[in-house]
Structures are given as C-alpha cells and as structure tokens.
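Methods: example folding runs. The two proteins below were folded one after another, and each record is reproduced exactly as written to the output file, sequence line first and structure-token line second.
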Amino acid sequence: MIFTTFLFAGKCEMWYEDNNLGQAGYFPPDAKEKFIDPQTWKASRKKMDVYLVRANALYIRKNGLTDYFLKNKMLKVLKDSKIKLALNVRGATLTQTSRKREKIRTKEIKLIEKLESMGIHIDSINFQSALSKSVKFTSHKDKVYAYPMKQRIKDIVSYIKTVHQKYPHIKFGLIDALPAKGYPYRKAYKYLVESMQKAHLTLHHIILDLPNDFIEKHHKGVTWKQVIDVEKYVHNDLHLKYGKIFHDAKAGKTSDRLFFTKVMQMATRYKKEGGDPDYCLLMSWYPHPSRTIPETEKYTQMYLFLKLSERMQNH
C-alpha cells in the first residue's frame, strides 16, 4: 500500500458552507445577497480558502440560483477572491435503498457536468454521511435496518469512477459522523481507502462531523481524547488530509449568540487538546445562525467565520 505523506504546518485551511436553516436544499436570500454585494464579507473573503455548497441547493429552482447568477455573480466573486469551490453531495449515500436516492445521484452528476461546462472549476466533491447515515424504511417505521458498509463503499467508489473519468482534476473527500454515533470508524475508513486504491482512485481527505455539545455531554461516550484519536488515525495511519466541522447542535436550535459562543469555545478547547486539522469547516443546518451577512454585525454566520478564522489561524 503506497501513501503520500503530508506535512502539517499547524495552520488550517478555512472552509465555509452557508446555513440551510434546517430546511433541506434551502439557500437563504442573504446567502445569495453576499455574492451581489461582496463588500458585506470583504474581510471574510480574505480568510476563506474553500466555499462548500450543498449540491441540491444549486439545482432547486426556488432558490433562484440561475446559470447566469452562478457564472456571473458567484463564480466571479470566488475567482476574484481566489476561493476554491467544493460540492457537498448526497448521491453516494444509501444510493441503492430507493429510486429517489438513485435520482439524487443522477441529478448531481448532471450538475457537475453543467458547472464544468460553464467553466466553473470544482476543486473537490465531499460525500455527506455516506458511511454513517442510518437507513429507515417507511414500511417499517419502528425499525432501522443496516445498509452494509461494503455496499456503502461500493456506492462511493462507483460515484467517483463516473466523475473521475471525465474530470480527473477533482479531489474527493468524506464528511463522516461514525465517531459521533459511537460506531467503529477505523476499519470503515481503511476499507474505503483500500477499495479506492484497488480501483486506481484516491481519497484525499476525511472531515469529521461531531458537534461540540456531543463532546460536552459525552454522547455515546465521546470524549476530546477520542476526537483527537480520529485526527491522529486519519493523519498517521491513513496519511490523508483531515478536517473538522465546527458546530453545536443544541446551540444551533437555541440562538445566534449561543451558537457563536459554543463554536468559539470548541475552537479554543480543540487547540488546547492538541488538535491540528488541515481543514476547519464552519457549517450549520439549524435555525441558527439565522443571518449570513454582514460580517460586521455580531453573531451573523459570516461574523462567526471571521472570528473562528482568527482563532484557528492564530499560532
């Protein structure tokens, strides 16, 4: 098995994803507004390395993200600011459990083709919860059936093969919550890496989805030591890039201010525990933060991004 060794400089790349406010596929008006008036996040753009966007938000018509807007507003601002575009996708998650899931994959592949044909360069594709999402069948509402890990990984590899053949420049990463759910993660991650290698493909990074409040209340026995152990395993054993999502589920359902406070506390504690991620990702899918811009107003998501960037890159 051949791996590439990465050197860690102690300064993470800053990733950002707009909040859908707990509504699947939603793209808030002020999230769109920031590309119309870039001055509302001028300082944040200088700190941002990667803009992560949920794929479904780009093809749901009610969001008003037209081809013109994507190319002449969003892409222009990202290019001018030297911010890379990444996609958060669901098309490799439980793909074969229903026709609906298969259609998600088809829509995403078409979206990737459309963006690339428009000259919109995609830096990476990130598979959301492909290994960790539970399976619930509507005909058996009281039971959750396992979707075999082997099949989950097969779905990911198949998706990547399809995209990589046409767009070899795109990198691939996993956003995962296995540790947050108390599930074994080491064998799953290793199996995914090895399966991709057998297919002559490469997994570039793993981003851990584990909320601050889960750690604080020791949900499923999770501790800060275990959080750091995940990072060390990804770095030292798998030799992949590693990222950490900064969010708090309870605070996200409470208030903008509390979400800000808890995320900043998480950042401070993470550094104190010796955390050294390659990617620091701010994201939320809760009612809070309820506002995106401006970055100059307290507790907006862009204000939080700016403060989080300063905290995590202050070495």
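Second run, written to the same file directly after the first:
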Amino acid sequence: MSILPRKVVDQVLQYKKPGEKEEIFNWRVKYENQFYNYAIYWKEKKIVGHIAIKEDSTVPPVSEAKTIIRLAVSVNTILRFFITHGQGWAHTVDEVWHKQSKLLEQMYQKYEVKMSDEVKQSFQEFMEVPTGILKEYREIQEANRVAKRIQQKVIGNYADQSMEKELDKAWNQLFHAKNNQHLLFLKTKESREKVIDFLSKEIPLWDLKGRWDLQKIKTQHRSMLFDKDELDAVLDVQSDVTRNESGEEAFKEILANTRNPR
C-alpha cells in the first residue's frame, strides 16, 4: 500500500474550497514514466472538482493533466462499476437454465406431432434462450475476472494506459454480453407467447404434471419480460455511438471543473 507524500496532500488541500471534502485516490496514474496522484472534491454529495498532482507535488497545467485525469476517471469508473455490479451480473444458477432447457425439450418431443411449422419454429427459438443466456454469462464472468485481477494490481499501486485499455475491453465484454441477454429476451417474446398458447390448449386439465410444467414455463416467460422503463433502458443502450458521445460530454464537464491551472 503506497503512502501519500505529505507535499501531495498539502497541495490537494490548497486547492480545496470552503465547504468541500477531498478524496485522494489510494492509487496513482503512471504516464510516460511519471507518477501522478489524483483527487476529487465533494460538496453536498456531488463531485465539484478534480486535480492531478505529480509525485514531486508540482501541479501541472490542465493541458498536461487532462490525459491523466481522463485515465484516472476511466479506470475508477469502470472499477467502481465492476465492484458494484460485476459479481451480481456474473452470478448465475446454471441448474435453473439447464432445467428450463430440459423441460422445453421434453415438451417439444411430447407434442411435436401436433405442432404446426410455425409452432415448431417458435419452440426452437424458445429452447435457444437458456443456451444463449448461459453463453453470455460466461462472457460476463470472464470480464469480471479480468476486472478483479486488474483491481488487485491497481489498488495501493498505480494504473497505466495498458491497464485502462484492458479494463475498457472487459467493460465492453460485460456490456455487450448483458445487452445480448436482454436482446435475446426481447426477440423471443412473441415465440414464447406462441409456445405458451399452444401448450395451454394442448395439455389436458387432468394432466396435473403437464399443467404444473406449463406453469413453470409461464413463470420463466414472465421473468423475461420488461416494463416500459426497463424496455426504454434496453433500447437506449443499443448504440455505442450514443454511449461514447455521452461519455465525452461528461468528460468535458469534468475538465471544466478541473483545478489544475489553465
């Protein structure tokens, strides 16, 4: 664990404004063989300032500091996201998805002779869901492992551009895998409904086992549905261009609040 030089702490405090709280990151930024400390200033739970300081305590101009701040913000944002959401997103009960796959296959085999070609196609699409979801979970889990490994290197030490690049790749892997899961739910909605409608008509009321299995399939289907806000959020993240543009706008605001001299 690195110990902050007293001179760096003094510089951070010097640029602090009344009513603010400061936070100096416990890791540094390494850029072109120089080390920088990065700090943020808080006021009423809102970040109101940023500063990058060299290890010798000199405060570089914003023209030099913006690359350091961009790297620090990028690494910190991605690491925080993985710490907050990575483990949860990576968690899957494989058995649940395997059981769903097996149940759908059993239903398909049992009622195949009574199916129209359209229902058969819908069944095939429904049966692809558990396999596809598990495939994307593997991608999420791998991305989470990469982020954990880099986190262990960074905390108490430093981050550089190669680590940022690797983290960004892991984030994109996580982002696209989660998005692919959502898209799989969306694009199979109609097919799942056709399967449920078919089974509801074909399974006799006296077939308690069959009706219970149908209820499981209905429950699984409902768990894949989105309310309006969730649907809007899923559709909103389809474009990486939008995400990149919003990121640049956020960074412009950060630069505007940077305390490094201009």
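Comment on the second run: Strands lie at 21-24, 28-31, 34-43, 46-54, 158-159.
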